[in-house]
Amino acid sequence: MAGKTLICLDRDGTLIYDSREHLFLGRDESWRSKVKFLPRVMEGLKILAAIPHSVCYMITNQAGVAITDYPLLTLERAQEVCSYVLEELKNRGAEIKGYFLCPHATLEYVHSKPDVRFDPALVRECACLKPALGMVFEALEAENITPDNAGVYVIGDRASDVQTALNIQGTGILIPFKNEPGQEDKVKKLGRDPHIFIARDMVEAAEFIRGRERSS
Ligand SMILES: [Mg+2]
Ligand SMILES: [Zn+2]
Fold first, then answer.
1. Rg (CA), the chain
2. How far apart, in whole angstroms, are the C-alpha atoms of residue 41 and residue 81?
3. Model pTM greater than 0.85?
4. Distance from the CA of 65 to the center of ligand 2, in angstroms?
């Protein structure tokens, strides 16, 4: 039996816009109108879906859940936003099978935001915040596969997304997003091995994976 291909996609700045007005999506009641897909995301996802034995999951760090200054951005709300993103994709003919989110904030993050108040119960060095592998393992488990019989790709707009892939001996693909400058340089410092690719958009990322899987 051929191995499976697990493709994990970041949410903010990768599937949907992530600029100032989109920050901490779900913190107010007008979040639905702020869910805007990035160019070529649908086309890219359709290419990914056509790769034999492939499955896509969304994995997203949502530290905003840990911020008590956003009382509306509860875990339930964050889950609602993720479900809505998946539904909207499905309505457009592009399917992502499920999602996992990390609601935690690290101490380092808390210290970097002295004016922001956090829920102490959600401040911790968890195992799910990318580049940790918790959410990738959840996706593997949901598919009943292991890293030994699956190829793992992580697509995202930050070096931490690429690092997540490297941490599981997978392949990391960066699609730089203009509001996150410097990520391309960071990724180049992670090395230039065949496990890293920088793509212009989701279509280029998807074509890279398709080509890789065809020749494997
Ligand atoms: Mg992102
Ligand atoms: Zn976490």
1. 17
2. 18
3. yes
4. 11
For residue 151, the enclosing domain spans 4-214
Q: pLDDT tens, 183-198?
A: 999 999 997 778 999 9
The rounded distance, in Å, linking the Cα atoms of 38 and 18 is 9
Q: How far is the CA of 168 from the centre of ligand 1 (A)?
A: 19
Distance 1 CA to ligand 2 centre (A): 34
Structural domains counted in the chain: 1
Ligand nearest, relative to CA of residue 66 = 2
> CATH no. for residue 134?
3.40.50.1000
Q: How confident is the model at residue 216, as a pLDDT?
A: 74
Q: Which amino acid is at 141?
A: E
Contact 70, 64 (CB under 8 A): yes
> What mean pLDDT value characterizes the chain?
94
Distance (angstroms) between ligand 2 centre and the Cα of 21 equals 24
